[in-house]
Amino acid sequence: MQILHLRYFVVVAEELHFTRAAERLSMATSPLSRRIRDLERELDAPLFVRAHHDVTLTPAGAALLPLARDVLARFDALPDELRRSVGDTRRSAIVGVAPDVPPGIRDRYLDAVRNRAPGLPVAIHADNTAPLLRAVRAGQVDLAFVHGRVSGSDLVAVRVHTQPAGVAVGRRAGFEGRTSLRLEELAALSYVSINPDAAPSVYRGVETLLRRHGIRRRMELESTSVADLAHVVAGGKAFTFAGLTSGATHKAFAGEPVVVLPVDGARIQLTTDAVWRSDREHPGDVVADLASCVDAVAQDG
Fold first, then answer.
1. Architecture of the domain whose range is 90-159+272-296
2. Fewest Cβ atoms closer than 10 Å to its Cβ: which of 42, 145, 262, 287?
3. How many CB atoms neighbour CB 212 within 10 A?
């Protein structure tokens, strides 16, 4: 039995809705449902009654919920308990950073930590939004800068940056010399993305936007690296979205026959939030120190 499966079970039990639970966990609904069925097979007991518009706990599920919460709480406390047991009072922190977080945000935040919490070593962990959110919830990352909508009362999310985004399209697709475009002009091309599980809330928003503007063609890469988009877009048969001036996706097209253009008639933005667990803001936890520095980069309003 994997500890991650217990985390998934607790979230589904709290939401009693697989789609909301999947959004809270930053993953797609289908793999979440499979993981729950895997857990039910391991325990040889059904945990949920699944109806078309209703999910309820079975007696076995209701009995497991407090046990699972207790196991997770004790598991998450292991690092601190171990340090106390061996008399290690040194503290360190891990801060997660998603690909399109502007370097200026990262650097100003680290400067704030150095000034306000001197002597606290900080390691940077780079990853996509979804795995970072899972790592924050699991206690493996203390605070993370991520993209898109963050849901769940177990997390605190503070908006730190909003950057305008545009369309990255190959020069040979017919947009050479243009200073902007409308999304409807892209209907003959495919929208290409990395694996949407890297940032589900971002890609759900993109899907809604594309459908509203009549763009139906899709191309989904198995990769979770934005660098892999460059070759596809440069070929002239697909487009994607990228920050207009910065970010890993924008940098992926440097030196490629690709233009990144503003979009007329649609406001496209990429947001960055600082995220941490609400139950770790108490004095003595490094998260309290890290959270106190977010105001140095927080976006007004």
1. 3-Layer(aba) Sandwich (3.40)
2. 42
3. 10
